[in-house]
Specification:
Layout (H helix, E strand, L loop, with lengths): L2 H8 L9 E5 L2 E5 L4 E2 L4 E2 L4 E4 L4 E2 L4 E3 L4 E4 L4 E2 L4 E3 L4 E3 L4 E2 L4 E2 L2 E3 L13 E3 L2 E3 L4 E2 L4 E2 L4 E2 L4 E2 L4 E2 L7 E4 L4 E5 L3
Parallel strand pairs: 2-5, 3-6, 4-7, 5-8, 6-9, 7-10, 8-11, 9-12, 10-13, 11-16, 12-17, 13-18, 16-19, 17-20, 18-21, 20-22
Antiparallel strand pairs: 1-2, 14-15, 22-23
Bound molecules: coenzyme A.
Coenzyme A (COA) binds next to strand 22.
Length: 183
């Protein structure tokens, strides 16, 4: 049975068991063992998304790689309506929980010259890095080039920019540390 037919037969509960390249139409991603990637997750054309083992991606998650690479480790869940833009690359470690409606960016528009349109000034792109054992609350925005190290918790609706401290609990816009998981 080809993959498209398998999707129709199994509906949304398609489970990828083997580590290899998978295609949905012309959209390509690579996943390890025992991943569950909803057929209603969206991958842009020619996308480069790599999952480790035991990852779960809910319906309506969007991967807009924009010629960048999105690398996701083992045991990572990504909930509905989260979107990742991969221009400068996104790297996510192991055991990460990403709630619904999170946006992860890896580029910003250059806008300083008022004599030119924002669009014509291009982009600053930089990899956004998320470590291991991180929980990102619903609606959080992770701006380009941010580093969220191991153990961090990001509160709902927070806006993260820059490099955080490991095991910090960060809330608000801009996100500020309110406690440490180590204390
Ligand atoms: C970040 C979070 C985990 C902190 O929970 P907690 O450890 O119980 O912390 P507290 O509730 O004691 O909050 C500590 C302080 O941060 C503030 N705060 C907590 N979450 C906040 C948020 N998302 N935005 C702004 N401020 C927040 C609290 O008001 C409190 O401020 P105060 O000390 O001035 O009173 C939690 O508030 C949160 O945002 N969870 C995400 C929920 C979610 O998205 N779930 C999706 C399902 S996976």
């Amino acid at each position: 049975m080809d993959l498209e037919r398998a999707i129709r037969v199994l509906g949304d509960r398609l489970r990828y068991q083997l580590g290899r390249i998978r295609r949905i139409g012309k959209k390509k991603f690579i996943c390890g063992d025992n991943c569950w990637i909803s057929r209603r997750a969206l991958f842009d054309r020619g996308s480069k998304v790599i999952f480790g083992n035991r990852c779960r991606v809910s319906p309506f998650v969007v991967f807009e790689t924009q010629n960048g690479k999105i690398r996701i480790g083992n045991n990572v869940s990504v909930n509905s309506h989260t979107i990742m833009y991969g221009h400068g690359g996104i790297s996510i470690g192991n055991d990460v929980r990403i709630a619904c409606h999170v946006a992860i960016f890896s580029a910003d528009h250059i806008y300083r010259d008022p004599a030119s349109t924002i669009y014509s000034q291009g982009l600053n792109a930089k990899e956004t890095i998320i470590g291991n054992d991180v929980w990102i609350g619903s609606g959080a925005k992770i701006l380009y080039g941010s580093v969220i190290p191991d153990g961090c918790v990001i509160g709902a609706n927070s806006v993260v920019k820059g490099t955080l401290e490991p095991y910090g609990v960060y809330v608000g816009a801009p996100a500020r540390k309110v406690r440490s998981r180590l204390a």
